[in-house]
TrEMBL record:
Pathway: Amino-acid biosynthesis; L-tryptophan biosynthesis; L-tryptophan from chorismate: step 2/5
Keyword annotations: Amino-acid biosynthesis, Aromatic amino acid biosynthesis, Glycosyltransferase, Magnesium, Metal-binding, Transferase, Tryptophan biosynthesis
Protein name: Anthranilate phosphoribosyltransferase
Its job: Catalyzes the transfer of the phosphoribosyl group of 5-phosphorylribose-1-pyrophosphate (PRPP) to anthranilate to yield N-(5'-phosphoribosyl)-anthranilate (PRA).
Chain residues that bind Mg(2+) 1: S92, E226
């Protein structure tokens, strides 16, 4: 593929057509391009600013090339773009087990870290999970436990061609935005955290374009791609063909903390230690941020539930010990299923 014209267009801040995005993504995912070409494209797209049409097309190509899996209906995913620079522990991953303990099935799509100190897969590997499973094993985990961790490299093998360029660039790119959009189980309910409020509405529109039934795109005013304990979080909700903006204030749910310092980690081991504190019922900012993000997911799964009711449901899932049991059960299942 001749990328020169594409690059000149991006330098001039001209948007790409769907056909151009399709061509580039196919070339990228098939290994036709050099690391320099991929990195140049990603950097120029970031400088221009990706459009909803460009993101929708790129996500469609990646789903077309992905290995899909059938885990049934009525699933939810809780995922962030990453790249918020906060280095907090793996909030959405831990929240997934609380959500599952509250009775909602979670197809958690995740990977090892690109920009943070502990990606979702890094945490689970630290805890002793086996991540390289067959489709049958992923399905068994969902059937037995109500939660399955879908390790991105297994389902998006073509992404390996962009990994080196992404790592060497070391900045947020198109792929940070695409990751939450390409769950291989084709979930229709999603909580997606973004690293800047700029992406709240555009990503909600992309999710709508991709067939989402109910999506909440979130960004906290202290810059997290999660619901925060130290600031108000803005939410763009997509449902029934409409977008709606609302906010989550941690003070309203007795979850406010002045600082994020206690939940910042240096390693997957530290992230796991905080997870264990949450599962043991220990009070503090780690528990409270998990409760807020759990409640967001429970509301996404069942919008007839108030946010306050969802908080209480999350508390019961933790304090009963059920969330911790889900964590242990899934770990055991990943090994029992291994062939």
């Amino acid at each position: 593929m001749n990328t020169n014209k594409l690059f000149e267009q991006l330098i001039a801040h001209e948007n790409l057509t769907s056909s151009q995005v399709q061509s580039f993504m196919h070339a990228c995912m098939s290994g036709e391009l050099t690391d320099v070409q991929i990195a140049t494209f990603l950097a120029l797209m970031r400088m221009k600013g990706e459009t909803t049409e460009e993101l929708t097309t790129a996500a469609m190509v990646m789903m077309e090339l992905a290995h899909s899996i059938d885990l049934g209906e009525d699933l939810i995913d809780i995922v962030g773009t990453g790249g918020d620079g906060k280095n907090t522990f793996n909030v959405s991953t831990i929240s997934s087990f609380v959500v599952a303990a509250a009775g909602v099935r979670v197809a958690k799509h995740g990977n090892r870290s690109v920009s943070s100190r502990s990606g979702s897969a890094d945490l689970l590997l630290q805890a002793g999970f086996e991540l390289q499973l067959s489709d049958e094993q992923f399905q068994n985990c969902m059937q037995q436990c109500g939660v399955s961790f879908l390790f991105a490299p297994h389902f998006h093998q073509a992404m390996q061609h962009a990994r080196k360029a992404r790592q060497q660039l070391g900045i947020r790119t198109l792929f940070n935005l695409l990751g939450p959009l390409i769950n291989p189980a084709h979930v229709k309910k999603q909580v997606v955290g973004v690293y800047t409020k700029h992406w709240l509405e555009p990503l909600a529109r992309v999710l709508a374009n991709l067939g989402s039934q109910h999506a909440l795109v979130i960004n906290s005013r202290d810059g997290m791609d999660e619901v925060s304990v130290s600031a108000i979080t803005d939410v763009i909700e997509y449902q029934h063909g409409e977008l709606k903006h609302w906010t989550i204030n941690p003070k309203e749910y007795d979850c406010y903390h002045l600082s994020l310092d206690e939940i910042v980690v240096e390693s997957p081991a530290q992230s796991l230690a905080l997870a264990e504190e949450v599962f043991s019922g220990q009070q503090g900012p780690a528990r409270d941020i998990v409760l807020l993000n759990t409640a967001t997911a429970l509301y996404c799964a069942d919008p007839s539930m108030s946010f306050g009711e969802a908080i209480e449901k999350g508390k019961k899932a933790i304090d009963s010990g059920e969330a911790g049991r889900k964590f242990q059960q899934l770990k055991e299942l990943t090994h029992m299923s291994k062939k």
